[in-house]
Amino acid sequence: MSNEIVISDLVKKFGDNSAVDHLSLHVNSGELYGLIGPDGAGKTTTLRLLCGLLVPDQGSCRIAGYDVKNDIRQVRSMIGYMPQRFSLYPDLTVAENLRFFADLFNVPKGEREKRLQRLAQFSRLDPFMNRRASQLSGGMKQKLALSCTLIHTPRVLLLDEPTTGVDPLSRQEFWQILKDLQSQGVTLLVTTPYMDEAAKCDHIALIHCGKMLVQKPSKDISSLFPRQMFEVYTQDPVRSAHFMRKHQEFASVQIFGDRLHVSSDISIEPFESAAREVLSQEGIPVHSIKKITPSIEDIFVELLR
């Protein structure tokens, strides 16, 4: 399988701040690759370097064998870039926005209407072609932005947090569209702050302060966690976390909604006994304790400790 995207020893500084710090990764052809990390990790800067909007201070980016710096015209003809704030024209209808971007990308006139119809059906926007973009929901706007990005049939998609601020159902529909694109052979590099979305990717890279922490197939990411992980369900998770953090048996304690994720070097029986003893001394009822597989978020938090 060929490498469709290759980043080698990439560095980008803004003053004294290293937004991207000797980053290297590769994305195989037809792969859905997730780049995850907190705000300020360097995700957006990396995508901007990949599509030629920024020039690296060191290192290189290649797409389909073309060097982004030296072969920018060839690169731009084969990529679609969807930034966090995609500029739709609110006074234009869905169809007019698509036709406008078709003009920008010099889509042949004989192809335009066929592509518009195909994208409208593909993105589930065909009932809304005459609706103004300003009147679309957040999820529909993201689908329209993606359709505009796809108007020139790129082989590589670079998507920067495409579902931020979108409702859960629309997020699910959007990711199904991305999976459909992948099945057609499109290579996707997606940044996301949502760990459940990262789990949908074939490969995951965790970055922090511009540096690569780890990159692995998503199915293998849980192997990085060095301890046992337990879910503790109590009546008061905030107080429970406060008291459990005072005891060495519990290596890390994180609140996940109304549950605690607690890592430890001991097995389930002594863990449960210790946890119940600590919490009963504070008068906190325990509903359940069970061993779980660590999530991507658990692993990311552990790597940052």
Question: In words, what does this structure look like?
Answer:
The chain has 305 residues and is α/β, with parallel strands linked by helices. The protein folds into two domains: 3-222, Rossmann fold (3-Layer(aba) Sandwich), CATH 3.40.50.300; 225-304, Alpha-Beta Plaits, CATH 3.30.70.100. The chain contains ten helices and 14 strands. It has helices at residues 43-50, 72-78, 94-104, 109-122, 138-149, 168-183, 195-198, 237-244, 268-281, 296-304, and strands at residues 3-14, 17-28, 32-36, 58-63, 66-67, 79-82, 156-160, 187-192, 203-208, 211-217, 228-234, 252-256, 259-264, 286-292. The strands form three sheets. It has a six-stranded mixed β-sheet, sandwiched between helices. A four-stranded antiparallel β-sheet has the order 2-1-4-5, with helices on one face. Strands 12-13-11-14 form a four-stranded antiparallel β-sheet, covered by helices on one side. Strand 12 and strand 13 (259-264) form a beta hairpin. Helix 3 runs parallel beside helix 5 (138-149). The longest helix has 16 residues, at 168-183. The mean pLDDT is 91.
